[in-house]
Design a protein that fits this description.
The complex is a heterodimer of chains A (about 240) and B (about 500). Chain A has about 240 residues and is an alpha/beta fold. Chain A has helices spanning about 40-50, 70-75, 90-100, 110-120, 135-150, 165-180, 195-200, 215-220, 225-239; strands at about 1-10, 15-25, 30-35, 55-60, 65, 75-80, 155-160, 185-190, 200-205, 210-215. Chain A has a single domain (about 1-240), classed as P-loop containing nucleotide triphosphate hydrolases (Rossmann fold, 3-Layer(aba) Sandwich). The chains are: A alpha/beta (about 240), B mainly alpha (about 500).
C-alpha cells in the first residue's frame, strides 16, 4: 500500500535527509519509524504527501507515484500530525465536515459524526464545541476522526502520541489497533519506543537519513526494543 | 471542492473579530460621511439657487448696454456635483472662501467615499488576506488541507473568492445603507444615469478592493509567518497609496520644469509696469511735441482732461461730448485732436504689443503645465490608488476632467452669450439712436447656462484604460500569488 523505493532527499543547504531508503507498508500493518531528530522520518512523510519533492527515488501510495501524481496518491491516504491543528473558530462538527468534504465525503449525517466521535472516544457534545476550547488530546482524537471519516486504505502519522497524557496515549493505541483490524496500512513516525513496541508490526530504525534496520514484531516482542535500537544506532555509527 | 474552500474561507473570516470591526467601521463611516456630505450638498444647492436668483434680480433691474460689463455680470453658475454626496470634488475658486471660516478641511484629508475605499477598505483587505496562507501555515492547518487530494490552484482560488466575498459584504452593506438614505431623501434627486454611475463606481471599488486583497494574498505566499506578511503588506500599502501618488508630481516637476504661478505673476507684473512705462514715455514725448506745435490750443485741449494712455477710451461721456462739440466748431482743433488721438492709439498699440508677451507667458505656462500634469498623471499610474481615483472621479464628474469639461461648456455658453449681447445692443441702438452704454437693457430672454453632465459613454471612454490597469494589477498580483503558492513550503 505504501512503498518507498530508493528515496533520497538532499535539501538546498546540502543536508542529506534521506539516503536511498526502501521499504513497504502492507495493508493491515503498522510500521513504526524510529530515529532521533533529523533522522529523516518526517521528511519521508513530507515526500509521501508531496509537501516536498524527492531528490531521487520514488514514493508510492496505492501504486500512485506521490511526486508525479500527488492528487491521485493523496486520495488513498490520511494524515495525522504531531500536533493536530484545526480551525479554532469552527466547532468540531464544522471542522469534521470541512475535511470530510475535502476528502470527497459529502452528505454526512449527524449519526455519522456521532459515530466517529464515539469511535475516537470524544463525547458527542464536543461536536458543538469550538476547537479553540479543545485540549491537545482532544485535538489528536479529532485528527483521527478526520482520518476515519475519509476512510482511506493508508494513514500517515507523524509523532501522533507526542505530548499526549498516558490515558489519551493508551486510547490512541487502542484506536490504532482497530484501524489495523480494518486493514489500514499505517506508517507512524515516533520517538516513543515503548509504544512502538506495543503497537508496531514492524519497526524501521533511521539514522542520518539511512534506514539502518527493519525489525519484525517477532524480533522485538520478547526483547528490549530500546536495546535493539541503541545497538543498531551504534552499528550504524561504527559503519 | 472549490465551493468547500470558498465556504470555509468565508465562514472563517466572518467568525473573526476583524470582520465585525470591518462591518461596524464601514457602516458607521459610510453613513456618517453620506449624512455630512448630504447636508453640505443641500447647503450648496441652496447657495446655488440663491446665486441664480440674485443674478437674475441684478440682471433684470440693472443690466446696462456696456458689452464687457454685461458679459462680466452674467456668470455661468454650476450646480453642486450630484456625487457631492459621496465624493468631495475639486474646489473651485468660489469654494475657497469656505475655508476662511473653517480651515480644518485643509489640514485633514476629507472623509468621503474615496477615503473609505482607498484607505479603510484597502487596509481591511490587507488585514483579511495577509495571513490567508502564511497564517494557515503557521497554525498548521495548511498541511492538513494539502494532505488531501486538492490542488493548490483550487485552494488559492477558493481563498481569493471566499475572502473577497467576506470583504465585499461589509462594503456593500454600508453602501446600501448610504444609498437608502439618498433614495429616501427628497432633497436629493438622482436620475437613472446617476444610479448607473453609482453601480459602475461600486464595481470599480470592488476591483480596487480585490486588488489589495490579492496584494495581501501574494505577500502571504512569500512569507513564512503572519507577522512578516503584515509588515511587508503595510510597506507595500504605504508605497502604493501614499508614496507613489505623492512623489509622481515632484518627479514630473523635475523632469518637466516650469515657472511657478508666483514667478509668472511677478513676470506678468514686470511686463505690465514696463508696458505702462513705455506708453507713458511715448505719450510724454507726444505731449511735448503737441505743446510745441499747437501751443494754447493744446493747453485748452489738455484742460478738458484728455490725454495719457487710454485716450478717449477712458474719458467720461460729458468730456467726450464737449471735445466733440469743440472739434465740430473748430477744424484746427479737430485736426489736432485727431492727430493726438492717433498718437494715443500708437501708444495703446505699443502697450498691447508689450502685453502680448504677458499673454504668451500665461499661454506657455498653461501648455507646459498641461504637459507636466499629464506626465505626473501617467507616472502615477504605477499606483493602483491613482488609477482608482481617476476612475472614480472621472466617472462621477468630480475630477480634473470634469473641470475641463466645465470650462468647455462655459466657453460654449460665453460664445453664445457674446453673440446674444452684441445682437441685443445692436438692436437697441437701431431702435433708439440715443441709446448709450449707460442705458438699461432688457436681457430677460438671455440664454441660461444649464450644466449637463458629460455623457456616460464619453466618461467610460476616459476611465476604461485606468480601470483596465486596475484589472491588470489584479491579474499580476494573482499570478504572483499563484507562482508563490505553487512553490510555497507548507512544512
Amino acid at each position: 500500500m505504501i512503498e518507498i523505493n530508493e528515496l533520497t532527499k538532499r535539501y538546498e543547504d546540502g543536508v542529506l535527509a534521506l539516503d536511498h531508503v526502501t521499504y513497504k507498508v502492507e495493508q493491515g500493518e503498522i510500521f513504526c519509524l524510529l530515529g532521533a531528530n533529523g533522522a529523516g522520518k518526517t521528511t519521508t512523510i513530507n515526500i509521501l504527501l508531496d509537501f516536498i519533492p524527492p531528490t531521487s527515488g520514488h514514493a508510492f501510495i496505492n501504486g500512485h507515484d506521490c511526486n508525479k501524481f500527488p492528487l491521485e496518491a493523496k486520495k488513498y491516504v490520511s494524515y495525522v500530525s504531531e500536533n493536530v491543528q484545526l480551525y479554532g473558530m469552527f466547532m468540531a462538527r464544522q471542522n469534521l465536515a470541512f475535511f470530510a468534504e475535502l476528502a470527497g465525503k459529502t452528505g454526512l449525517k449527524k449519526k455519522d459524526y456521532d459515530d466517529v466521535m464515539r469511535t475516537v472516544g470524544l463525547p458527542e457534545k464536543a461536536l458543538r464545541m469550538r476547537l479553540k476550547n479543545f485540549s491537545k488530546g482532544m485535538r489528536q482524537k479529532l485528527g483521527i476522526a478526520i482520518a476515519l471519516l475519509k476512510d482511506p486504505p493508508a494513514i500517515l502519522m507523524d509523532e501522533p502520541t507526542s505530548g499526549l497524557d498516558p490515558t489519551s496515549a493508551h486510547e490512541f493505541l487502542a484506536q490504532l489497533q482497530r484501524l489495523r483490524e480494518q486493514g489500514k496500512a499505517i506508517l507512524m513516525t515516533t520517538h516513543d519506543i515503548f509504544r512502538a513496541k506495543l503497537i508496531a508490526d514492524r519497526v524501521g530504525i533511521m539514522k542520518q537519513g539511512r534506514l539502518v534496520a527493519i525489525r519484525k514484531k517477532q524480533e522485538f516482542k520478547h526483547a528490549d526494543l530500546e536495546e535493539i535500537y541503541m545497538h543498531e544506532m551504534q552499528m550504524a555509527e561504527s559503519a | 471542492m472549490l465551493r468547500t474552500i470558498i465556504a470555509r474561507e468565508f465562514l472563517n473570516n466572518i467568525l473573526n473579530l476583524r470582520f465585525m470591526i470591518g462591518l461596524v467601521l464601514c457602516i458607521i463611516v459610510t453613513v456618517a460621511c453620506i449624512m455630512i456630505l448630504a447636508h453640505d450638498y443641500r447647503q450648496e444647492m441652496k447657495d446655488y439657487n440663491a446665486r441664480l436668483n440674485l443674478q437674475d434680480e441684478i440682471l433684470d433691474n440693472y443690466a446696462k448696454a456696456n458689452r464687457h460689463r454685461l458679459i462680466g455680470m452674467i456668470r455661468p453658475q454650476k450646480p453642486p456635483e450630484r456625487f457631492r454626496l459621496l465624493i468631495i470634488g475639486i474646489p473651485g475658486n468660489e469654494d475657497l472662501g469656505f475655508f476662511d471660516y473653517n480651515p480644518l478641511p485643509i489640514l485633514f484629508p476629507p472623509l468621503d467615499f474615496l477615503f473609505i475605499v482607498t484607505i479603510i477598505m484597502s487596509l481591511l483587505a490587507i488585514l483579511f488576506s495577509h495571513d490567508a496562507i502564511a497564517g494557515e501555515r503557521q497554525s498548521g492547518t495548511l498541511r492538513l488541507v494539502i494532505s488531501n487530494s486538492i490542488s493548490r490552484t483550487k485552494i488559492l482560488f477558493g481563498k481569493f473568492i471566499g475572502g473577497t466575498i467576506s470583504l465585499v459584504i461589509p462594503f456593500i452593506l454600508a453602501l446600501l445603507v448610504g444609498v437608502l438614505y439618498v433614495s429616501i431623501n427628497p432633497a436629493i434627486q438622482w436620475d437613472s444615469s446617476a444610479w448607473v454611475e453609482l453601480a459602475l463606481l461600486t464595481a470599480a471599488s470592488i476591483t480596487f478592493i480585490t486588488l489589495f486583497y490579492l496584494l495581501g494574498l501574494m505577500v502571504s505566499t512569500f512569507s513564512k509567518s503572519s507577522a512578516i506578511s503584515i509588515l511587508n503588506c503595510l510597506f507595500l500599502w504605504v508605497l502604493l497609496i501614499l508614496v507613489i501618488p505623492n512623489v509622481c508630481p515632484y518627479i514630473s516637476a523635475q523632469l518637466c520644469r516650469i515657472p511657478s504661478i508666483k514667478q509668472t505673476k511677478r513676470r506678468d507684473l514686470e511686463i505690465e509696469i514696463h508696458s505702462l512705462k513705455v506708453a507713458r514715455e511715448y505719450m510724454k514725448e507726444s505731449i511735448k511735441k503737441f505743446k510745441l506745435k499747437y501751443g494754447t490750443l493744446f493747453s485748452e485741449f489738455e484742460s478738458m482732461e484728455f490725454g495719457g494712455v487710454g485716450f478717449l477710451i477712458d474719458a467720461k461721456p460729458k468730456h467726450r461730448k464737449a471735445a466733440r462739440q469743440r472739434a465740430d466748431a473748430d477744424p484746427e482743433f479737430k485736426a489736432m485732436m485727431d492727430a493726438f488721438r492717433e498718437e494715443g492709439k500708437k501708444a495703446q498699440k505699443e502697450l498691447i504689443r508689450i502685453r502680448e508677451e504677458s499673454d504668451m507667458l500665461w499661454y506657455d505656462l498653461k501648455i507646459k503645465a498641461a504637459v507636466q500634469t499629464k506626465l505626473a498623471k501617467n507616472l502615477a499610474c504605477i499606483s493602483p490608488f491613482a488609477n482608482f481615483v481617476y476612475v472614480a472621479r472621472d466617472l462621477t464628474g468630480t475630477g480634473l476632467r470634469s473641470l475641463e469639461y466645465l470650462e468647455q461648456t462655459k466657453d460654449e455658453y460665453e460664445r453664445q452669450l457674446r453673440s446674444y449681447v452684441d445682437k441685443k445692443i445692436d438692436d437697441a441702438r437701431e431702435k433708439d439712436p440715443a441709446f448709450e452704454e449707460e442705458s438699461l437693457l432688457d436681457v430677460s430672454d438671455r440664454p441660461r447656462f444649464v450644466f449637463k453632465e458629460e455623457a456616460l459613454k464619453d466618461k467610460l471612454g476616459e476611465v476604461l484604460p485606468y480601470w483596465g490597469i486596475l484589472v491588470l494589477f489584479n491579474v499580476v498580483f494573482f499570478a504572483a500569488a499563484f507562482a508563490g503558492f505553487m512553490r510555497y513550503d507548507v512544512r
